[in-house]
């Protein structure tokens, strides 16, 4: 029995690690405003919370399904931005408002409540330690931050970074697992990377006027065209001189 329980815990840890790895990949892709990041996040929500719930506790779907819906929402919301390349979007900047901050807080409270599941109704959540509360809020904030990112709110990257750091600290205090801790470090770094890359997001009116910063793919293509044109002009000048 002990062997079966330890094997079950090991599988759950592996699924959680795979989910966080996909979250990191998603953050890097979305930092470049790439649509594929949302498909990666959908896979991350499915690989960890959904599969774990289906295998071990169906009540966990109360928490897992909303995480999956967050990723689906991000895919839909990003589709409202104009394409600038094959998968890259012209993401316009959305400011943080009091209502968006309140909405984030309420969303976190709802996710944490769903994470407790039936323990919310029988009073079991009252015996949860402060570390568990922080862990649940941090886990929820990792996915909730992508709602802000989907809307073009640059601050969402800071929320993701802080959530990853909180998870890192809690795992260090409760059960130091270097693999999981390393993943949270990478997620935090990916969030900082996204915050840096999104520093020049255009306003909505700039994007409509075509003043948005071109994607890296478009910049490379334009540079190649300019180099080719310069080379042709140089060859033409040499021909005329001779």
Please outline what is shown here.
By secondary structure, this protein is mainly alpha-helical. The chain has helices spanning 2-31, 36-56, 61-78, 98-116, 130-150, 155-174, 178-197, 204-208, 216-241; strands at 82-83, 89-90. A two-stranded antiparallel ribbon has the order 1-2.
In terms of topology, how is this protein built?
Elements: H1 2-31, H2 36-56, H3 61-78, E1 82-83, E2 89-90, H4 98-116, H5 130-150, H6 155-174, H7 178-197, H8 204-208, H9 216-241
Antiparallel strand pairs: 1-2
| Elements, N to C (H/E) | HHHEEHHHHHH
How many beta-strand runs? 2
- Measured by DSSP, the beta-strand proportion falls in under 5%
Structural class: mainly alpha
Radius of gyration: 22 Å
Structural description of this entry:
With 242 residues, the chain is mostly helical. Helices cover 74% and strands 2% of the residues. The chain contains nine helices and two strands; from the N terminus they run H-H-H-E-E-H-H-H-H-H-H. A two-stranded antiparallel ribbon has the order 1-2. Helix 3 (61-78) runs antiparallel to helix 4, helix 3 (61-78) runs parallel beside helix 5 (130-150) and helix 6 runs antiparallel to helix 7 (178-197). The N and C termini lie far apart (90 Å). Mean pLDDT is 84; it is low at 208-213.
